[in-house]
Amino acid sequence: MKSFKFLVIALFSVIASCTIDKTDYQAETGSVVPEYNEFKEAVSLTSGIYKIRIEALNGTFYKGYNELHLKITNTQTNENLSTSEVTFLPIMSAADASKTSCPHQYNLQYDAANKYFAGFSVFTSESATPDSWKLYVGFTADNQKYESSKEVSVAKQSNKNLNMASFTGKDNEQYFIALISPQKPTVSENKLTAGIYKYNKPVNAAGTFPDASQFSYSEVSGYTLKLDPRMPEPSMGNHSSPNNQDLTQQNDALYHGVVNYTMTGNWTLNLIMTNRNGLIVKGTVVPTDFTPGVQGVKSELYIDTLF
User: Is the CB of residue 270 less than 8 Å from the CB of residue 229?
Assistant: First the structure.
């Protein structure tokens, strides 16, 4: 009987802790989980008689995944280009003069229905002196090539539901996983979307800068992201949730699955990435033990979220 009383007290303490944490997170949600749905101009460039406008959500480039809309206007006729081949290349210059890029769509595709060239960029770091990001845009009009470049600012991503991870896999390849949606999850089963990308190691020596072949990335095809979401805070015992679905690639080349958030708060998306042969590229199994009072164990591959 005494043991039973102790068990009841312990369980009450855990439940009380969960309730306190949940209340804190609910109070915090409004300020840390912004949701942006409007595309605005983030930067404009000029080349000859043409003006190039690049739009992003909230008119800002953020660390992580950015959907981009690019419009090119002839300033003399006020007509927009629709048939040009458009290239887009983001490059980060570091203090030691080294230059790197990030996952991006190099050849942009024209969206006739919405009248813009569509692409994306997964910025891997925020702008911070002396490191700087610069965008290089190229296109053809009237059989003439045009080029333009401009430094841009990449802001911190304050929405942790759009976090990303970069790592070297067991195959010695460099990978990037970027969360794309949901921006603002609910306490329910949420459709989860992510992009998975790989750096393409150059096979030839660098040509004239900026040589796109030295900064090439591709969407990873046919992999699987096994998902095990947990609440790692000591008061939560690293518990999981039912009805989650691993992320697999769909026709849009992105990876889709389901994450079931049973309450608000800190969640860790523990991941195991396997290639098309089912071999583990990165990630470890998370123990199933309920561990109240102890910080939860995470996979070697994970992304933290908060809502």
Answer: yes
Domains and CATH numbers, the chain: 39-155 (2.60.40.10), 159-306 (no CATH)
Residues lower than pLDDT 70 in the chain: 1-32
274 — alpha (psi -120 to 50), left (phi > 0) or beta?
A: beta
Which residue do the tokens 């040009």 mark? 84
Summarised one tens digit per residue, pLDDT across range 60-105 is: 999 999 999 999 999 999 999 998 899 999 999 999 999 999 999 9
The single residue listed with the structure tokens 């396997």 is: 274
Q: What is the pLDDT of residues 254-264, one digit of tens each?
A: 999 999 999 99
Torsion angle (degrees, nearest 10) of CA 193, 187, 237, 235 = 120
Q: Which amino acid is at 22?
A: K
Cα–Cα distance for residue pair 224/237, rounded to 1 Å: 27
Nearest to 163 by CA among 138, 180, 144, 143: 180
Contact assessment for residue 88 and residue 106, using Cβ atoms and an 8 Å cutoff: yes
Residue 154 and residue 127 in contact, taking contact as beta carbons nearer than 8 Å: yes
**Which residue shows structure tokens 């290639």?**
275
Answer yes or no: pTM beyond 0.70: yes
Is the C-alpha dihedral spanning 41, 254, 194, 241 positive or negative? positive
Structure tokens at 92: 């980060």
